[in-house]
Structures are given as C-alpha cells and as structure tokens.
Write a structure and sequence with these properties.
The chain is an alpha+beta fold. The chain has two domains: 152 residues, 2-Layer Sandwich (Fructose-1,6-Bisphosphatase, Chain A, domain 1), CATH 3.30.540; 120 residues, D-Maltodextrin-Binding Protein, domain 2. Helices cover 29% and strands 27% of the residues. The protein contains six helices and 15 strands. A hairpin with a 5-residue loop joins strand 8 and strand 9. Helix 1 packs antiparallel against helix 2. The longest helix is centred in the N-terminal third of the chain and has 20 residues. The relative contact order is 0.14. The protein binds 2,5-anhydro-1,6-di-O-phosphono-D-mannitol and magnesium ion (MG). 2,5-anhydro-1,6-di-O-phosphono-D-mannitol binds next to strand 5.
C-alpha cells in the first residue's frame, strides 16, 4: 500500500505539469456519466493510467472517465478507482482542482473493501494526502525537494467553523435548507469553491466544519460518485477522527454501490456538525 502511495507522487508532478501548460479546450467525447470531457480530463486520465498500471500490486484500475475496469496485473492485489481531474469545470477559472484515489481489495468494490485512499490538490502548492484505516492521514506538500511530509498529521477537532454546502439551492429539500441556515445562524462561514478536493481539504487542514452534497429534488441520489469520490474521502475523514454519512445517517464506509458509477448523497465533517445534521434530518443510524 505504501509503495502505491509513493507512485502517486509521480502522478502528482505529471498532472500538475499538464494542468499548468496544456490546452484547456473541450475534447470530442463524453465520459461514462455523460459529462463533456476537457482535453485535460483525457490527458490526466492517460497519465494516471500509464503510471498506476506499472505498479505490480495493482490488479486493475477503474477511471471515473471510463466505462470499464482495466485489468493490468492478474496477480495484483488491489483495484484502484480514481477521478483523474475532479472539478475540471473550474480549472478555466484557475481555481484549485484535484485527483482522487480509492484503493480497494480486488473484487470488493464496496465501502468495507476500501483499504486506503488519497487525493492530490493542484493549488498554489502541490499537495497530497494519503490514509489507511485507523491512522491519521499524512499530509505532503511540495517544496524544493519534491513532495515532503508535513510533521503534523491531519486530525479533525470536535467542531469547526466552515460550511461547504453543495448542490443547487433551488432543489434542496426543506430540511436541508433549514440545516444549512441553522449553521450560518450559529456563525459558520461559507467556504464552497465547486471543487470537492480543495473544499474538503480546507476543512481537514483547518480541523473542522462540514461539507455536504445532499440528495435534491432534481438529483435524489446526489451528484458525487461513490467509488471514485465519496468513499475515498469517507475513509480519510474517519481516519482523521471525523464522520462521513449518507442522507439517512448511515456510515458511508458501509455502503455497497449499486454500479461502478453510482452516486450517493454525502455529508463529511467533524462530530458536532454531523450530530447537528442528524438532528435536522431526524436520522440516528450510525
Ligand atoms: P466532476 O467530477 O465532474 O468535476 O464533478 C464533481 C464536482 C465536485 O468536485 C464538486 O464538489 C461538485 O462537482 C460541484 O458541483 P456543483 O456545481 O453542483 O455544486
Ligand atoms: Mg469528480
């Protein structure tokens, strides 16, 4: 597992270089979910595929940008699900974007099969966060010697100050609007860029708050994909001492996605905010 995390560092530098220097226009295709693809989505996908597929522990890779699983080492142990360029719609505005990885036991593409996860943030600095279950996530930041680990591991406090509410407000359910309004009434600050990687990273680095992407009247199952986006962050938030639940208050790490590209409502935060969410929605599981 640790050697896979090492491989992600090379991916970080290669994709960062592509974002900084390559064409931002649209490609001719659409991805597996029907989104228009940027040339950069395709390029980032190619970089991740070519580097990850060289690692002998990787049995297969599955990209958010592709329909099918690609088996690369039949004797390998893990399936790596990845979103090569999350938030690509905001890259033209030069906002931070990211790459997300979920490392699953081969044949177990479920919350319980997830063994480790990581994400890269392409911002003013290049950063990487990697975690296995039960150990505080390690935070790496770029410097003159490449990517180096910062001394402090990431840990969420009991309560934060930031609120990152996703989805189109017009379609929020009344209980969601009441919940978000109640946090602002308590003094929470809005921090939402439209990129889940920097938005969730900010809450982790500042040690508390909540990110939500709920089920809405137009998208009852939310927008974010379970295997590529939601479960990897669920592991990282739990490893940091926070919580990650679905709209019924169930732990996301117990989720069994119905298909490779299935989406799920998701709420990530420190324990106070997740407790407030459960009260507002009248859910107690988990
Ligand atoms: P993408 O994988 O197509 O880039 O979409 C995922 C992104 C997340 O990073 C972000 O949290 C969300 O979409 C923003 O969606 P919205 O604009 O509906 O708030
Ligand atoms: Mg994405």
């Amino acid at each position: 597992m640790l050697s896979i995390f090492e491989t992600l560092k090379s991916i970080a530098f290669a994709v960062d270089e592509a974002i900084k220097t390559e064409d931002l226009g649209y490609a001719s295709g659409r991805n597996a979910t029907g989104d228009d693809q940027l040339k950069l989505d395709v390029r980032a996908d190619g970089i991740v595929e070519s580097i990850l597929s060289q690692h002998p522990l990787v049995y297969s890779i599955i990209s958010e940008e592709k329909e099918e699983e690609l088996i690369v080492h039949p004797d390998g142990r893990y399936t790596v699900c990845y979103d090569p360029l999350d938030g690509s719609s905001i890259v033209e505005a030069d906002l931070s974007v990211g790459t997300i990885f979920g490392i699953y036991e081969k044949g177990k593409l479920t919350g319980s099969g997830l063994r480790g996860s990581a994400y890269i943030v392409y911002g003013p600095r290049l950063e990487l966060v990697a975690a296995v279950r039960g150990r505080a996530p390690r935070h790496y930041r770029s410097g003159s010697e490449g990517l180096f680990a910062v001394r402090r591991s990431l840990r969420l406090g009991e309560k934060g100050k930031l609120n990152a509410p996703g989805g189109t407000q017009k379609y929020w359910l009344p209980e969601h609007k009441a919940f978000v309004d109640s946090l602002f009434a308590e003094g929470y600050r809005l921090r939402y860029s439209g990129g889940m990687v920097p938005d969730l990273h900010q809450i982790l680095v500042k040690a508390g708050g909540i990110f939500s992407y709920p089920g809405t009247s137009d998208k009852p199952e939310g927008k974010l994909r379970a295997l590529f986006e939601v479960l990897p962050f669920a592991l990282i938030y739990e490893a940091a001492g926070g919580e990650a639940v679905d709209q019924r208050g169930r732990r996301l790490l117990e989720l069994v996605p119905s298909s490779l590209h299935a989406t799920t409502p998701c709420f990530f935060g420190s324990s106070y905010e997740i407790g407030r969410f459960k009260e507002a929605y009248g859910v107690n599981d988990g």
